[in-house]
Structure formats: C-alpha cells, structure tokens
Design brief:
Layout (H helix, E strand, L loop, with lengths): L1 E6 L6 H10 L21 H5 L1 H6 L3 E7 L7 H14 L3 E3 L2 E6 L2 E6 L4 H13 L9 H6 L7 H10 L12 E2 L6 H14 L8 E3 L1 E7 L7 E7 L12
Antiparallel strand pairs: 1-2, 1-8, 3-7, 4-5, 5-6, 8-9
Length: 237
C-alpha cells in the first residue's frame, strides 16, 4: 500500500468530470469510462496516450507516493490530514492553461503563484514524518543521473525531486506525445478544456490517494477541505 497527497477538485466538480471522461477513468469510484475517438488521431490512440495519467487519476502531485514509515498508521496519517486542513486556508490560482511540459500535456498555472508554491512546500514538510525512506530501486526509477544535484538531494531527503524551488503544479492530461502529434494534441486539449482555462482554479482541499498495490490504479481515499478563505465583507451583529 502506498499513499499520496494530491490536489483534485470535488468528485462532482465539472472539471473533475471533464478530466475523468478525457482520461477514461474516475479516481473517486475506480470506474473505467468510455473514451471517444478524435479527429487527427487513430482509433484507440488517445487511449494509449492517456494510459499513464489514467492510472494515477486526475490530480496535481503535492506529496509524491510513499509507503508509511514503521510505527506510523493510516489512522495517524488521517488525523494529520484533518489537522493540516484546519490550519490551511483555501485560495485560488488566478488562471490555468493547457501547456506542454516536455513531451506531455497538463493544466498548469498561467504564471507562477507564490501562495501555491508555499502551500505545496507546506504539504511536503508536514507529511514527511510519515514517509518511509525510498528503496534503492525507487531511487533508480527516478533516473537520478538525469537530475540536477539539488534534485538528487531532494529525492533522497523528501522522496521526490520536484519540490520547493523545483515544484511546478501540473494536472497531467497525457503521457508522452510525439513531436508530430503535439500540435494536434494541443488544439484538441485547448478545445476540450476551454471552459476551465483562462479562469481561476480554487484550491480548497487536500486529497489522500491510495495505491492498493504497486502498479494498481490509484483511488481517492479521503478529501480534506481547507479552511474557508476570509471574506472582505462586514458582519453586522
């Protein structure tokens, strides 16, 4: 069993429904969903291109998958999640867009948003006491020879290399897309997610995902709301 702390909108949120339909799987229910074919792609091609993100479910990684350290229980982790949610205040990313990150596509903030970076760092640090150290095989899977010195150190120290200065919020929509397919994929995703881009994305929760066994699809275990953001209005008693 592995755990991960991700952001994902609520189960019934329009973005969740749209992304689950695109990926072909609902991480809240575990249900596989039919995927339609798209102009410019062969039958079943989009299914193959979404294979990797489909297993993880629609999400943005905040604390990468980890096994529990000896002496820590799931109940301990859930109690910490509840306490963390009570301490953190909901906020919004001003605008999200479809962007290509290396060979894959994702929904990302249009510009760097410091409150988001701070929130991600807080998640990494708060739940580190629960993480078992990575095995040598886990480290090798990250291809440390391709990482910067800082990233290699973070991989060992925090279990993931894209943390702190190297963190970039992204909600993955595809696996690797070839260069000759990149333009048509970008146009397809921009159309598909047009209702959600160039608009704010509210970060109002932290969700615990589980991987029942290595290689199994990830499932939503529990979604912890963050404290509501304060309003600017006046309260008249």
């Amino acid at each position: 069993m592995r755990y991960a702390l991700y952001f994902t909108p609520a189960e019934d949120a329009p973005l969740t429904r749209a992304a689950s339909a695109w990926l072909g799987r609902d991480a809240f229910t575990g249900e596989n969903l039919p995927q339609e074919d798209h102009p410019g792609f062969e039958a079943g091609e989009v299914f193959k291109l979404t294979d990797d993100p489909r297993r993880y479910g629609f999400h943005a990684t905040l604390k990468a998958p980890f096994s529990l350290k000896d002496g820590c229980s799931e109940a301990d982790l859930l109690a910490a999640l509840t306490e963390f949610g009570a301490r953190q205040t909901a906020f919004s990313i001003p605008s999200i867009v479809v962007e290509q990150l290396g060979p894959f596509f994702a929904l990302v903030p249009e510009t760097l948003h410091p409150p988001l970076q701070d929130f991600a760092a807080a998640v990494v640090e708060a739940f580190e006491p629960f993480r078992a150290p990575l095995s040598e095989a886990d480290i090798a899977r990250r291809n440390p020879e391709r990482l910067s010195e800082r990233q290699r150190k973070n991989l060992v120290a925090w279990g993931y290399h894209h943390v702190f200065e190297d963190f970039r919020f992204h909600m993955t929509l595809t696996g690797p897309v070839s260069e000759e397919r990149a333009d048509v994929m970008r146009k397809l995703l921009e159309r598909r997610f047009a209702l959600f881009t160039a608009r704010p994305l509210v970060i109002d929760s932290l969700t615990l995902f589980i991987e029942p066994e290595r290689g199994a699809p990830f499932l939503v275990h529990s979604r912890q709301p963050l404290s509501p953001a304060p309003t600017n209005g006046y309260h008249h008693g």
